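Title: Prediction job returns without error message
Component: structure pipeline
Severity: low
Priority: P3
Assignee: unassigned

Description:
Job completed but the reporter wants confirmation the result is attached to the right record. Sequence as submitted:
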Amino acid sequence: MKPNQCFGKTKLPPRNNCGRPQLHPSVCEASISSSISQPGPEYERRARGPANSAGCVVNLSDRPSLCMSLMGGQAAIGSSDHAVYTVDVPSGKFRKALYGGRKGHTEWVTCITHLPDGRILSGGMDSKLCLWDRAGSSCIDLLAHTASISNVKVPSNGFLALSSSYDKSILLWDLTPHKGNKPSSKPIASLRGHKAPVMAIAVSSICTQNSLNNIASGCRDGSVILWDACTASIVLDHKQTHTGHVTALECLGCADGSGPDVFLSGGQDGILQVWDVKLDILSTKMYYTVRLRDKEHYLAFAYPSTLHLTRF
């Protein structure tokens, strides 16, 4: 796509009094020079780079690694050799391989995440979710999907997990630990509405330990659906929002609700879409480089030959 053809027939967002584009009337645009504070110690530390620029190599397998989750000083890596490996990040030392015997995956491990208490949830091409204990010595099989697992998500402040699959469904799991009892191996809700395999999911950052507010999901036909997790119903269904697969979904906001409840979706078409949940609308389309500063609620994006910064 040529730079001057970037937007094609898509209209640029309306302009505010400063002459800069705005997402909607309640959003204020500002230039980077006037909106970003001067670099502080954290910026300077990052600019210097790591103390050991060479890093270290941890050999885990002769097969490709497919996914990774970080929590504290631990990295959990899912591999195409059907195993999950844990590594101590500060020391760069291998910890354990979660695989073998009757436990674990029998196919590629395609997605992985940590729970707040240190347990690990992994999904694979074997249609199975594995919930590993903190020691990695045993796991619970969560069997409800009928095709490869594409994604798993767990909010940082709770034990409700989401899984998406090529079977076109999203399942909600309650993985709350119960003293002396195992968590339920059956999903508590099923979200069905996609006509193609679900490739990406995101959870609203505004949620509590025992409930979720909004869920976004995207599939291979380019459609994005916003769900009400409390009622398992569709709030917004945009058909073929992206050309090609929806490849990524994230939520921009703060858990205390002080920031915006905004979802970002990326696709094979190279477009980043911004979804304002409170307004139930697709706010705008953005191309090229995107940078997020979550704590300060900045969204920087580039139109052809210009760079703009939005503060929510």
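Comment from assignee: result matches the submitted record. Residues 116 and 258 are 22 Å apart (CA to CA).
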